[in-house]
Design brief:
mainly alpha, elongated, two-stranded antiparallel ribbon
Length: 159
């Protein structure tokens, strides 16, 4: 099979399957490039690729998670939802569309099932931004007696 250029492949996919936005595919490729290709850090220094050779679904999803948190912070779920991506399996769908066109490769042991249940978007993209519990504050609040507020009647307020 002839390897189809990434951008031509995505264009072909989007003509028949518009579930995911073009930007979702671009982000997928950018995430893959970030974990496999040698590039430049923001300060201009080169970084070594984190992974070489074949990338598993788990490695790709972890790279997507880290890249998304860095790029979008607490807005990851909002951005992904806008692109039509709501779960790890959606990235698997995109990857396997690109595999079908020969743009991405796969090993004999790879399966689209590998993308299922790697993590929930809630755990990966929301939880890191939730306030951390303060045990000292919680125990002090639990130990303090509840205060009751008395309401003033209208006559006491001067009405």
């Amino acid at each position: 099979m002839v390897k189809l250029d990434f951008f031509l492949a995505v264009e072909r996919i989007l003509k028949t399957d518009s579930r995911f936005d073009l930007d979702a595919y671009l982000f997928l490729k950018d995430s893959l490039d970030t974990i496999t290709a040698e590039g430049k850090k923001s300060d201009g220094r080169k970084h070594k690729p984190r992974l070489t050779g074949h990338v598993t679904a788990h490695q790709l999803l972890n790279g997507i998670r880290l890249h998304a948190l860095k790029q979008f912070g607490p807005m990851v779920c909002t951005v992904f939802a806008y692109w039509g991506v709501t779960k790890c399996e959606d990235f698997g769908e995109m990857v396997y569309k690109l595999i079908e066109l020969g743009t991405f490769g796969k090993s004999e042991t790879d399966s689209i099932e590998d993308f299922k249940g790697a993590y929930t978007f809630e755990d990966a993209f929301v939880t890191p931004f939730l306030p951390k519990p303060n045990p000292a504050k919680e125990s002090a609040a639990a130990a303090a007696p509840a205060r009751t507020r008395k309401r003033k009647i209208k006559s006491e307020q001067g009405f």
